[in-house]
Amino acid sequence: MELKTKSKRPEMNCAIDVFYDETQGFSNYINDSATYKAVLVEAGSFVVEEDGEYRVITAPAAMAVNEKANLKIVSESGVKTCTVFFKPTFIREEFTIEAINSGKYEKFLASVKNGDQMSPEERMYAALKGNCAEFEKDYTDSIFQDALLLLEFNWHNRNVVYYSLTEQEFAVAVRLCQRLKAELDSQPDNFWVLRVRQLMFSLLFTATADFNRDNRQDDIYKDPLVAKVARYMWVNIGNDITLNDILKAFSVNKNTLNDAFNKEKSMSCMTYLEQLRMKYANKLLQFTDHSVSEISNICGYRDTNYFSKVFKKHTGMTASEYQKQMKGLC
Asked: How many Å apart are CA 106 and CA 254, to the nearest integer?
């Protein structure tokens, strides 16, 4: 199937290289080899395999998927996604996939100070932060400015990039996707193509500017058992989780489970659960307006004082102190 949207208006005999698909699970076209895919994971969780390694992704999340990706889902539960398929030529006609993959639009990366000691991704962000003499000269040209909108799809040496979203980021992404779908479906006037293009720019800018700030769901696991248990932990992070719950859910004994976690993460299963909860609490304290008691409950701690005690063990300050410090930086 060619992933396009045809005009429904009699006076417009055209089709654009943008296609929207909303579904339980993943779109049947997720591994299409001719398009980029901007995916919003609205609900659920899944484990994906990449070259013998595993990643655990839980909603709300987003994914930037290029034409070379071949997603291999190991397990999933309750996943709901909306996916925007597009060819980069819709952003600008010069942006063929071949041209983008040639590197011609990222020449400034070569001039980053100490860039030879950095990964491509590190060079990219150093350049965006101003550590590049050539950046201003090259990027006064609008074609290079537009190319930056696609950097999440092809400048990471990875075919898929995953993002954990805050509630605010998720709300923005949902709103943009809903507006995009409405334009593609209704095509109320002859300007619908222009509005779709504007919405695509907004969606890509949001991903480039915001989603790369925090990749908490981007941890790599080598053991599929550890990955699946980690997914279980994220799904149930707000519930009371006992070791017996995990052993029963995965039909495994305590020694086998802890041996797997010690080998993979150098800690026991339940210690890793505590670490995940503190990582999640850290994010909620930084990026939401929830109270400490609300965050304690969201992270699975019914006793707020105990939650703060555990948080201080990991960070050196109580949850209230940390939240106040983070708000002071805003």
From this structure: 50
> Between vectors from CA 49 to CA 284 and to CA 280, what angle results, nearest 5°?
10
Domain that holds residue 135: 97-148
- Which helix (H) or strand (E) segment holds residue 282: the answer is helix 269-287
Say what the pTM is.
0.80
Residues 269 and 246: beta-carbon distance below 8 Å: yes
In a domain, 179, yes or no: yes
Q: Which residues contact 168 (CB under 8 A, 6 or more apart)?
A: 287
The secondary structure of 12-23 as a DSSP string is: ---EESEEEEEE
In the chain, which stretches have pLDDT less than 50?
215-216
**What pLDDT, in 10s, does the model give residues 109-162?**
565 566 666 665 666 666 666 555 555 565 566 787 788 788 888 866 789 988
Check whether residue 70 and residue 187 sit in a common domain: yes
The residue written with tokens 């304290």 in the block is 285
How far is it, in rounded angstroms, from Cα 172 to Cα 174? 6
Phi-psi region of 231 (alpha: psi -120 to 50; beta: other; left: phi over 0): alpha
- Asked if residue 218 belongs to a domain, the reply is no
User: Under 8 Å CB-to-CB from 241, ≥6 apart: which residues?
Assistant: 233, 273, 300
Instruction: Supply the CATH number for residue 45's domain.
Output: 2.60.120.280
Amino acid residing at 44: G
Q: Compute the Cα dihedral for 124, 45, 56, 222 and give only its sign.
A: negative
Do 203 and 310 belong together in one domain?
A: no
Q: Are residues 144 and 265 in the same domain?
A: no
* Position 73 in a domain: yes
